[in-house]
């Protein structure tokens, strides 16, 4: 081989090796999985997240190479919203009031509601020996809510106002006391609380473990007994960058919704196992059955109920001086694409 041929051969070999190396780098970049970080509560009102965490449904939807799901458990909506603001979460299963607050705080920029998760699942319970039989009997009583300004707190304050029951700080005689759900059990047993507007499974736990009885299932207050207690929201940035992954996630979410409704016994067993894993304490069967019986697992966000809750929160002075503009809060376009693909009715 002469010098010219040798140089040409070395040059071609270098090109081939360069191409292989370059392809490897490109390929390596392409297959590096996107981590989809999803927040949820270890609770039956976050049913799809809890079941999907147990059986790997979300990972299968995003597999094999380009994405995986990292499910993170939270105990309160505000902390999950803060994590989304900080860029630590991409999607969150969360209640309507933290959703509204996060949207308003970010001036409509940070998040969008892309699906519903659960309707129902909140009740007003009263201590069996409190003497409460009708709304007028709440005069002079101490009523708990989980957190000031949270979804149940707004519902409680609005219900009291609707029955002409004034709060003590406003010249009335009803005390609304924000108390974390686990702490309410002890306070009821000590007779320091008379009633509570509680989410599931805490409402059922108060009934079974703290001498309480059901006074009002909140579903009775809403058209068709439907109101949102959990939505699926997404970071606007993630939605714009990874619309394809959001669609695959929502396809899994819809499939999980259908599976849970078709296999309630298996779903309850899985949820209880996950709740025990996350909280170190499973729910008693009677508590689990009662709690599950008061929810509807659905991908419909029941938009009208959130808008009503927003108005109620504003009227109570919990959303500032200006009425929030929620015109851009919802983006159901991807959900409706999934529903159309599956031959299901779309959501308006």
Which helices and strands, and how do they pair?
Elements: H1 3-31, E1 34-40, H2 47-55, H3 57-62, E2 67-73, H4 77-85, E3 91-94, H5 96-105, E4 111-120, E5 122-127, E6 142-145, H6 151-162, E7 175-178, H7 181-189, E8 195-199, H8 202-209, E9 212-217, E10 228-235, H9 236-241, H10 243-262, H11 264-279, H12 285-293, E11 295-297, H13 303-315, H14 333-341
Parallel strand pairs: 1-2, 1-3, 6-7, 6-8
Antiparallel strand pairs: 3-10, 4-10, 4-11, 5-8, 5-9
Helix pairs in contact: 2-10, 2-11, 4-5, 7-8, 8-12, 10-14
Characterization of this structure:
With 348 residues, the protein is an alpha/beta fold. It has 14 helices and eleven strands. A six-stranded mixed β-sheet has the order 2-1-3-10-4-11, with helices on both faces. β6, α6 and β7 form a beta-alpha-beta unit.
Care to give the gist of this entry?
The chain is an alpha/beta fold and 348 residues long. Helices cover 47% and strands 18% of the residues.
Keyphrases for this structure?
single chain, 348 residues, alpha/beta, D-Maltodextrin-Binding Protein, domain 2, 2 domains, six-stranded mixed beta sheet, five-stranded mixed beta sheet, 14 helices, 11 strands, 18% strand, disordered N terminus
Give the rounded overall mean pLDDT. 88
Assembly state of the chains shown:
single chain
Sum up the overall morphology in one term. Answer: globular
Number of domains: 2
Task: Count the DSSP helices.
Answer: 14
Distance between the termini: 74 Å
Q: Based on DSSP secondary structure assignment, what is the total number of beta strands?
A: 11
Largest sheet: 6 strands, mixed
CATH class of the largest domain: Alpha Beta
Please estimate the helix content: 40-55%
β-strand amount: 15-25%
Going across the biggest sheet, name each strand in turn: 2-1-3-10-4-11
User: In angstroms, what is the radius of gyration?
Assistant: 25 Å
CATH superfamily of the largest domain: Periplasmic binding protein-like II
Indicate the CATH architecture of the largest domain: 3-Layer(aba) Sandwich
Low-confidence stretches: 2-29
